[in-house]
Structures are given as C-alpha cells and as structure tokens.
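Any chance you could type out some protein's one-letter sequence along with its backbone structure tokens so I can compare the two?
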Amino acid sequence: MMSPKLSMSQKKIRLAVSGDTGSFSEEAGLLYAQRNGLNFKIIFAIDMEGVLKALDKRKADIGIFPVVNSRGGLVRPAFEAMGKHLFKFTDELWLEVYQCLMVKPGISKKQIKKIATHSQAIAQCERYIRKEYPNAQLIEWEDTAKAARDLAKGILAKDTAVIAPARSAQIYGLKLLAKGIQDNHPNLTTFIVVTK
C-alpha cells in the first residue's frame, strides 16, 4: 500500500469499468484500486465494448470488466468485445456477487410484470425468477446498475423490477424487495484488468 503522500503526487489513473454508478464492475474497480494503492478516477463505460474503446482512444489507462461467472458462465459480450480490440491482460480479481430485486417506491410484488437487467443477472437468478415471477417478461439491459438508473428515471415502466446490486437501490432511490436472489452461493464473478 502506498503512503498517502506518494499517492497524492502520482498521476490520477483513469479506470474504465463496464457498468454505471452502483454496478458490480464499479465495485470491482474500487476493490482493485484499493488493493493496489491507486490514485484513480472511475470512467463509467457501461459495457465491455465501451471499456476497450476507452483504452483504444487513450481515454482510460486501465479497464476492468467481467469475463466469467460461476453460475452464468462466460460473459458473452466481453468475449465479443475482446475479439475486436487489441489489449494487454494484466490482472484478475474475483468478486462475490449478490443480486437484489428492486422496484420503484410504492410498487408491490404483485404489480411486477417485467424484470430488466443484464443477461448475466438473468442467468444467475434463473431459478428464483422462474419460481417467484414465472410470467414476468424478461428484458435484457446493458448493465444492472443502468437498469436501476433507468427505472428511477422513468425510462422503464413502473411495473418493471430490476435485478442489480443493493447499492443501486440506495443510489437511485429504489425499494429493495429481495436480497441475495442469485441461485448459487457463493456467486463468484471473475473480472479481468486490461491495459492498451
């Protein structure tokens, strides 16, 4: 761990994450920066393509995004994006992911007709969704935290629930209906750290 004096004088590292504020990718980025004593600024690139484009355009120094989950398997958008860009793999980290179900305040479980979230969150919570919301329409969104933000903004309909990190509910003023709804315990995701 670097001393505060050293980290204050070093250049601020631009750290691109494949998510919005409150995402698991942001959590992975914060964890990586803390472990490595980085003086950093987070760039919310929303998806894996965005992270690798930010590196290509030199708008980011480091990128972090998920590649595999113990339940959901390969994160396909990550591999699609990796096939289009040149980058250097530098590190990896594992993050235990706790998926949560949230709605706009005033919405009850009975009112939920749709569930919006990233395809990985759907895969990780498949049994829970089938049991609790067998008739809900599933909507794939580019990021779990972005789904929470878009529900709060009214971009998603009021009868929509989102699956996202608990922190997203707090940030965007949503009501947590259920915590730890992932099918596997532990629910581990591998994130990779890349540079240009």
